[in-house]
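General statements about sequence and structure are easier to judge against a single worked case. No coordinates are needed to read the tokens, only the vocabulary itself. The sequence in question and its structure tokens are set out directly beneath this paragraph.
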Amino acid sequence: MNAILDMGRAARQAARRLATSSGQQRNAAIDAMADALADARAELNAANAADLADARAAGLAEPMLKRLVIDDKTFADMQRRLQRVAALPDPVNRVLEGFTSAEGLRVQRVSVPLGVVGIIYESRPNVTTDAASVCLKAGNAVILRGGSESLRTNLVLADAMAAAAFDAGLPPASVQIVRTADRAAVGELLRMDDCIDVLIPRGGKSLIERIARDSRVPVIKHYDGICHQYLAADAPLDRAIALVINSKCQRVEVCNALETLLVDAAAAHRLLPALGQALQAAKVDIRGCQATCAALPKAQPASDDDWGTEYLAPILSVRVVDGLDAAIDHIARYGSGHTDGIVTDDMSLASRFVAAVDSASVMVNASTRLSGGGAYAIGAMVGISTDKLQARGPVGPRELTSYKWIAYGDGHVRD
């Protein structure tokens, strides 16, 4: 795997040059990437069709197939996110704090790139474009390793963007992609702590656990998205239905889709029948507690495993709970720290929920699907971190920076 080591060394050299690049130069490169994708559209379509054909023949599950497709809407969204990232404020060289000492020493804490970022991911080709743009925006070199099921697609995307970055005057190794499906390449990346500053895995739980367990490189992790919505006793029916359906059905296969609905016992008789009808109309299967099954005859009894399952499918677990504290306890036991929400008009109740629920995103009267780059004005992201160090929640350009202390003196010495 000398090729992987060579990529790491080239990325380290590129990172040193990127650290001195201007924000305008990096923005120009990212804008040029959107045009480069348009120029490569025919080649991209052919590559994506070949990947899809192989994935179907291999029996890839339908949610994974949906993640793999690049249709007109997905392609336009990929270009749009590149442009949004380019338009974001420069996250590098920001003075985070500063002061002048009594002796006249000027001290500043200034944001700087992390250096080299490795992204290991599955299925979604849009991660390729998002990752390249977000890393470059923050002045980082990036090494991409996508899944074997989308290798052809990812190669076309990465090659087009790497060429655009080079044409804009950035180092040739600013954007690199592992060009083999050999799993040994992942093992090599995990050992390259001398070349890579941080790894970000995106994919199934087994992939993330393996990387977190075996990596010598620091890892920003994104575990399950077991997202909850709690309907308080006063939750308005129309709002509750709209938020539950959007949270669950807008895209069932993504990490911030709703997986468990918690309904306050004081409102179950008022909310559950209409919610059941709406979910049935949306072709969502319900797995419920005893009280839910009594109210909704078509619901299937939930097992204890259901409460801790990220379905990524049109399945929703529903539980009736005895008030706010019971809802918070359920989320603490079964949640993944990703996104959890409350529906209520009682802002004191909402404040208690926000303070007690220890998740990266907590939503009040809003869909769980909004916990991401667009709604948070990040533009694009390389994942949603369930960690608490370095980055938490959506990981955009600002989260891919560190800082250094700079002191300006005039012959100052220590007494």
